Amino acid sequence: MKSLLTGLACCSLILAPMFAQAETARTTTATKPAINDVALSEAGTLQGRAVDGQGKPLDGAKVSVRQNSEVVATAVTDAEGKFAVAGLGTGIYELQAGQGQGLVRAWDTHIAPPAAKNNVLIVSGATARTQSGLFCDPLDTITLGLAITGTALGAAALADDGGETRIIVSP
């Protein structure tokens, strides 16, 4: 019985870190920013709209377009939240309006992939960040359960003497 409990304790303590690493890998890959494909107009103009988290247009918001951390263009939204930035070439750009930001891959209109959109939508303040509680994520719960089980089984294995009283006498 003691060997069985010890083996289960060891397995639980070995599996707990594996689940924690899986959670870290899942969280890391989930935080990569998405790059959206956008087709520029004939004149190399990027068109879009900026709204707040409730979908209301951002009137007079400054839209900045960055490439390689350098501002390459700016625009100001109209009363409907619309903006246009001319003179862009193909490439990856970071757009920011208010608290909203995102990455776009701009394509010349003739070579844009079929999935490329003609307009950009920037939503300011729409990012909701939360932290999960102790039992909100199943992997966290499994990891905690395995660690507690391993500790409890290890303690039980140490305490289990089979009902015998042993007296050790040294020669």
Structure at a glance:
The protein has helices at 2-30, 138-159; strands spanning 35-39, 46-52, 62-67, 70-76, 82-85, 91-97, 100-107, 119-124.
Task: Provide structural commentary.
The protein contains two helices and eight strands, in the order H-E-E-E-E-E-E-E-E-H. The chain is rod-shaped, with a radius of gyration of 29 Å. A hairpin with a 2-residue loop joins strand 6 and strand 7 (100-107). The longest helix has 29 residues, at 2-30. The protein is of the alpha/beta class and 171 residues long. The chain folds into two domains: 2-30 and 131-159; 35-124, Immunoglobulin-like (Sandwich). Helix 1 runs antiparallel to helix 2 (138-159). 30% of the residues lie in helices and 29% in strands. A five-stranded mixed sheet has the order 1-7-6-3-4, with no helix packed on it. The chain has a three-stranded mixed sheet with strand order 5-2-8, with no helix packed on it.
